[in-house]
Amino acid sequence: MERTDLRQTLVDPTDSEWKSLSDSGLESILTETSIPYLRRVYLGAFIEMKLLFRLALPAILVYLVNVGMNISARIFAGHLGGQELAAASIGNSFFSLVYGLMLGMGSAVETLCGQAYGANRYDMLGIYLQKATIVLALVGLPFTVLYTFSYPILLLLGEPKTVSYAGSLYIVGLIPQIFAFALNFTAQKFLQAQSVVFPSAYISGAALLLQVLLTWITVHVMGQGLMGIAFVLTICWWFIVVAQCLYITASPRFRHTWTGLRWKSFQGLWGFFKFSAGSAVMICVELWYSQILVLLAGLLKDPAITLDSLAICMSISLISFMVSVGFNAAASVRVSNELGAGNPKSVFFSTWMVTFVSFVISFVEAIAVMASRDHISYIFTADVNVAKAVSELCPFLAVTVILNGIQPVLSGVAVGCGWQTYVAYVNVGCYYIVGIPIGCILGFTFDFQAKGIWTGMIGGTLMQTLILLYVTYRTDWDKEVEKARKRLDMWDEKKEPLEN
């Protein structure tokens, strides 16, 4: 669209001109200074919301389904008994170590593929995908040993003996998931960088239905109990991986970005590992933070009820968190694509638009949590004492839900920019130097129990959110565009990536 025509369209667009506005690009609209500022914001918001929800909604479905598979396993375990629910909760929390690591390292693919796609360097996407898969698979090897000896480790952490034993058996059934994560998260980020999100949503939805059906048969027909739940969960994760890989290799839409296996993928693996390590630390310390709450709960008074109530609250929090992670993915794609394309104003606009939308949604979710505080636990268990404990924790849960509406989105912006190493330091400081120590003091020393631990957790998250808001507000987006260009040039020259 010519600039004169664009100016006229911006003044009073007709319905048929909305598509032309989108095609002209967000940057063109935001830089058209002859149009009033509020008018540009209004039209830019229309275009950005269209792009945002097209990315976020399928991504939300993917993450909700992935989490829903774990929650479904907990529900089945909860209806077997309180001890089985506690064992599944401990097992999932301990196994989240490798989940967080793989998800975090996979976000390096999100940064590099997103910026390469925005810069039209399509051939590099397949290389990044293969490098990441190789690195993540190698990193997963020592975790197979760690989880094989999970029983003595859980005992050393002070968890009850019976819960530790059942949890360790559950973990053994999850071990093959390690390598499914290595393939899944890299393929998922490869697709997201190209704004291809609906196929992953369909595949994940099919996997959830398969898991519910197979788990019901395994538990209620075959009587396999907790181990059966774990094995079915592993099978369904591998179903997702196989389906995604077949789609990438067979679909003609990836003929420019997937050109088959390449020897070049084995070059510079150490450099890629170092770049992805910052991503891993950033995501890991964030995911492990909430899971530590569950592990600490096993050391409190009456650990069975405390573990069950916290597991239920954390499951609800995780559902809310996955909605924000969908916007996290959308923010990462939008920011990385616009940086690669050299559009600083679009990056700025996209960043604050997605943050605002996610916050509004999380605020509505928090109201829903408080409105259903006395009844929501019965989805998981019929225990009246657990229901009372969950109701008492819901105000803390509501605050966490609101913070979850902002913090993950800002982390998505960080991933899109390649700030993972910096944010990793922020996360370690806020979560592990501030949040957890305060939580332990309140929970154990002052005997506030689970409420005290959760208060410390909220304090750490709030501090991290405020720091990321300030850093994002102070960012020079023109400099970030230049950094993105240099990073891609460095990779093309087979050098290590430029880190921030």
- Give the assembly state of these chains: single chain
Unreliable stretches covering 5 or more consecutive residues: 15-20, 493-500
SSE succession: HHHHHHHHHHHHHHHHHHH
Total number of helices: 19
Proportion of beta-strand residues: under 5%
- Provide the domain count: 1
Share of helix among residues?
over 70%
* Rounded mean pLDDT score: 80
Sheet with the most strands, sense and barrel status? none
Brief overview, please?
The chain is mainly alpha-helical. 82% of the residues lie in helices and 0% in strands. The chain has one domain.
Question: What does the model show?
Answer:
The chain has 500 residues and is mainly alpha-helical. It has one domain (41-492). 82% of the residues lie in helices and 0% in strands. It has 19 helices and no strands. The protein has helices spanning 3-11, 18-24, 26-30, 37-80, 82-118, 123-148, 150-156, 161-174, 177-193, 198-221, 225-250, 269-297, 303-341, 344-371, 384-404, 407-417, 420-445, 449-473, 477-492. Helix 4 packs across helix 14 and helix 8 (161-174) runs parallel beside helix 11. It is globular, with a radius of gyration of 23 Å. The two termini are 36 Å apart. 52% of the residues are buried. Mean pLDDT is 80; it is low at 15-20 and 493-500. Its main location: membrane. Belongs to the multi antimicrobial extrusion (MATE) (TC 2.A.66.1) family. One of its GO terms (biological process) is xenobiotic detoxification by transmembrane export across the plasma membrane.
